[in-house]
Design goal:
The complex is a heterodimer of chains A (323) and B (506). Chain A has 323 residues and is an all-alpha fold. Chain A is built from 14 helices and 2 strands; from the N terminus they run H-H-H-H-H-H-H-H-H-H-H-H-E-E-H-H. Chain B folds into 3 domains: 235 residues, Rossmann fold; 181 residues, 3-Layer(aba) Sandwich (Rossmann fold); 74 residues, no CATH class. In chain B, 33% of the residues lie in helices and 27% in strands. Chain B contains 17 helices and 22 strands. The two termini of chain B are 47 Å apart. The chains are: A mainly alpha (323), B alpha/beta (506). At the A-B interface, helix 8 and helix 9 of A face helix 2 and helix 3 of B.
Chain lengths: 323, 506
């Protein structure tokens, strides 16, 4: 029985840990499918975490904090678009600039407003999102298997966890079953074909970036107003980059990107679980090695294990019409 | 009674300092096939891109069916019944035919009813014009000829009454050209108007009823096709009389200078692109290698010039083995042994386009006397050499200090040619010598190649222009799917026969 509950809690934490990765990967899919590289997922996630925490603290409502985070992230996406779509700058440089800016900005603003470098005040229960208990979760708990799955794995997560996994089929539907999705994919593959079809290439890319900004805001709000009750310095901790890797590993496809996110989330959940555990024959594994597991996995996966990842054809290239 | 469907008045367009279209006036009559002919850079494509709304004219008016229209984007043109098949197809390669065609004209937010209707309409259009396209195939699986049909179908579906085709035959085999012309004629019979942009005189004579000639951004003449001939049109295009047929002496082939035995070459993706190829070129002859783009010619040329690794087989220069899969000479060593290479892609491999002309004129020879002494470049000698050679090869403008990218395609090619020919190579490998080069320069380049041959060089000419292969070569081999599928003596071969070989039919 203890084994079963171990497994259940491992899956439970996998779902939770993967949540920001899923949002970020979906956000990345929109930007990159439209032909715009988005390395700035990391910076935007950090920005969202900061704005959501500060917003909820001052306004007393986590939803308003989330709304402000969305506005902030969409603005950053527009900034990225302004530099790399309208003014045809280097997309990677624009992203790196955003990432560096946000690390400094959040730390500095926290220091200025709250007197602590890179730390915002702890949010009380009204100011943050709480765990959602699904109906009948308590009464079903003792039913074997079903109880474990429903009450221990599915129930008791933050709202963002559910939203993240709902966003995946939604993104799939938008990208592959709507005319917007067709245009989105086309503009990342061959913008000239889109232009000659009478569609504005720049407008398409801005729309994609706007959606990207909304999605990534959820990832940041999840970190600072749900799993944690405040913002702390560099709290995104490379999740934006990990999500980007998951998206590439998933070949810019929502379903496979989800699987990659879950895999990364699982190794992370596993490493937390394995810390201090004595394994037969091997003994205790050094913490550092275990913590490195998700990153080692990223490198191994991206270094050819999954085969060639074929990026959208026009990715990273600003659209230039007149020669 | 003919009525004008498209009228252009005083169209002007500049890109920076280049005045690409100067006061263009053009009237196209409904239901005709109208040819627009001119050399590369004459402004034909620019003009048609303005009509399609892709570029905006600096001044001038455009009328469709007598009504003045304002074209801000291709959408406006499409609404007014103008469609365009671009030289480089505007297709998303990993989309299906259907997805490409409905793009921008989906008619619904979520795919459903309209998609079914589109499928039906497209099937009807395919039947009417005998296009024979499977809507569900992916573009990357289609041949170039079929991709072009998809473009035509796309325009028709979007309601085109005027269909502009920009250099449509450049990438087609002669058989595919026949098919295309059949389709265009049946479009005309259905009352569509077709504008054909080309630099090939034979297509104008074949297909059009009216023709307009452009030269250096200006419209220099309009005429009914039946009232003119190729020579007259060529003269209007170039502004002087041109020799359309080459004077070539009888071949005096000597010993074998260059020999390729059982050569196999792979590309960067590890796909075998050249399969067991045998070639022999003698002194004093030009061997033409014909074939549709992408059948292994590029990889063959790269392997022969030492740029690409040989997978198996051997290459001999003057009877001595220079390359096999184990030992091979690099391009520099091959050059020292008398092999020169004019690469297919001149801007990528033949030149550093951001460098000045004189630098490109000595590349590869820059470390030789008198250009450099103990590793220091001798600027004065380089400039004087450049001036001399630019005059000899008629490179215009004759300014060694000009950045290479500012020269026209033809003059860039002359820079490469003069550099490689100046050393009097024994073996010359030439890829697409006149791609993107205007008629006047083509004549010059061809004459130079003939001169080299008469001086005893062995020349391999790789070209996708069948006319060029036919007019220059003494012997012709055809490459298809990496293999040599046929060898013909130039005296008794027709372009039909070669076309069948190129298509892999025989």
């Amino acid at each position: 029985m203890e084994f079963l509950s171990d497994i259940a809690s491992l899956i439970n934490s996998t779902l939770r840990i993967s949540t920001p990765l899923v949002f970020a990967a979906m956000a990345g899919i929109f930007a990159e499918r439209s032909g715009v590289i988005d390395f700035s997922l990391e910076g935007k996630m950090l920005m969202a975490a900061f704005v959501a925490a500060v917003g909820s603290y001052f306004l007393g409502n986590p939803w308003l904090g989330l709304l402000l985070a969305i506005i902030a992230c969409v603005s950053l996406s527009m900034l990225h678009g302004f530099a790399s779509v309208t003014y045809k700058g280097d997309q990677v440089v624009s992203c790196v600039a955003i990432n560096i800016l946000i690390i400094g900005l959040t730390t500095a603003l926290a220091a200025a407003w709250f007197g602590q470098a890179g730390l915002t005040p702890t949010l009380n229960e009204d100011q943050r999102f709480l765990e959602v208990n699904l109906p009948f979760a308590e009464s079903l708990r003792d039913v074997t298997i079903i109880g474990t799955i429903y009450s221990d794995i599915l129930s008791g997560h933050y709202i963002f966890v559910y939203l993240a996994y709902l966003s995946v089929p939604l993104v799939f539907w938008v990208v592959f079953k709507t005319s917007f999705g067709l245009r989105l994919r086309a503009v990342g593959e061959n913008p000239s074909a889109v232009d000659t079809a009478g569609i504005n290439v720049f407008a398409m890319r801005y729309k994609a970036l706007a959606i990207n900004g909304v999605l990534i805001a959820f990832a940041g709000a999840h970190l600072s107003t749900a799993v944690n009750a405040n913002f702390f310095r560099e709290m995104s901790a490379g999740r934006g980059y990990l999500a980007l890797a998951a998206m590439i590993f998933g070949k810019w496809h929502p379903k496979t990107a989800l699987i990659a996110c879950l895999l990364f989330g699982f190794t992370d959940a596993l490493q937390i679980r394995l810390q201090g555990v004595e394994l037969p024959a091997i003994g205790e594994i050094p913490v550092q090695l275990i913590q490195a597991l998700p990153y080692i996995l990223t490198v191994v996966l991206l270094a050819g294990f999954v085969g060639k990842a074929i990026a959208p054809n026009a990715i990273g290239q600003p659209y230039i019409k007149e020669r | 009674m003919v009525s004008p469907i498209l009228e252009l008045t005083n169209i002007n367009k500049s890109f920076g300092h280049v005045h690409a279209n100067k006061n263009i006036n053009l009237t196209i009559n409904k239901g005709t096939i109208h040819g627009i002919i001119g050399e590369n850079g004459a402004g034909k494509s620019t003009l048609m891109s303005i009509v399609f709304g892709l570029y905006q004219a600096n001044s001038g008016t455009i009328k469709v069916n007598g009504k003045e229209i304002n074209l801000r984007s291709p959408k406006d043109s499409i609404i007014n019944g103008i469609g365009m098949v671009h030289q480089h197809f505007m297709l998303v390669e990993n989309f299906t035919v259907l997805e490409n065609i409905i793009l921008g004209f989906e008619g619904e937010l979520v795919f459903g009813k309209n998609l079914e209707k589109a499928k039906k309409d497209l099937k009807d259009l395919c039947d009417t014009y005998k296009l024979n396209i499977d809507l569900n195939s992916t573009i990357s699986d289609l041949s170039v000829g079929f991709r072009q049909r998809v473009e035509i179908l796309k325009s028709l579906y979007r309601g085109a009454e005027i269909l502009i085709l920009d250099e449509p035959t450049g990438v087609l085999t002669p058989q595919e050209v026949d098919e295309l012309f059949k389709i265009l004629r049946s479009l005309k019979e259905e009352g569509k108007t077709i504008v054909l942009i080309t630099h090939k005189l034979i297509e104008i004579m074949d297909l059009t009823s009216e023709v307009s000639v452009m030269r250096q951004g200006e419209m220099v003449g309009h005429t009914k096709t039946e009232n003119t001939n190729k020579e007259q049109l060529a003269e209007m295009m170039v502004g002087r009389s041109v020799l359309l047929r080459l004077d070539k002496s009888e071949v005096k082939a000597g010993e074998v200078l260059f020999k390729v035995k059982n050569l196999t070459v792979k590309d960067d993706l590890d796909v075998t692109r050249v399969k067991n190829v045998d070639l022999e070129i003698r002194s004093g002859e030009i061997l033409g290698l014909a074939g549709v783009t992408g059948n292994g010619q590029t990889e063959l040329l790269e392997a022969l010039s030492g740029i690409r690794k040989v997978e198996s087989g051997e290459i001999y220069l003057e009877g001595k083995k220079v390359s096999d899969s184990q030992n091979f000479l690099d391009p520099r060593e091959l050059k020292d042994k008398g092999l020169a290479h004019v690469p297919e892609d001149r801007q990528r491999m033949g030149l550093v386009t951001d460098f000045k002309a004189y630098e490109n004129l000595i590349f590869g020879y820059h470390d030789q006397q008198p250009f450099s002494k103990s590793s220091v470049l001798n600027h004065r000698d380089i400039i004087s050499h450049s001036k001399k050679i630019m005059e000899e090869y008629d490179v215009r403008p004759q300014s060694p200090n000009l950045i290479t990218s500012n020269f026209s395609g033809g003059n860039q090619q002359k820079i490469i040619l003069s550099r490689e020919l100046n050393e009097n190579p024994k073996v010359l490998l030439v890829g697409q010598p006149t791609r993107g080069v205007d008629i006047g320069a083509i004549e010059f380049i061809h004459q130079r190649l003939i001169d080299m041959r008469d001086r005893g060089a062995a020349i391999l000419l790789v070209s996708v222009e069948l006319d060029e292969v036919l007019s220059l070569s003494d012997r012709i081999v055809v490459m298809f799917d990496g293999k040599i599928v046929g060898e013909k003596d130039n005296k008794n071969v027709t372009d039909r026969e070669l076309g069948l070989l190129m298509a892999g039919v025989v």
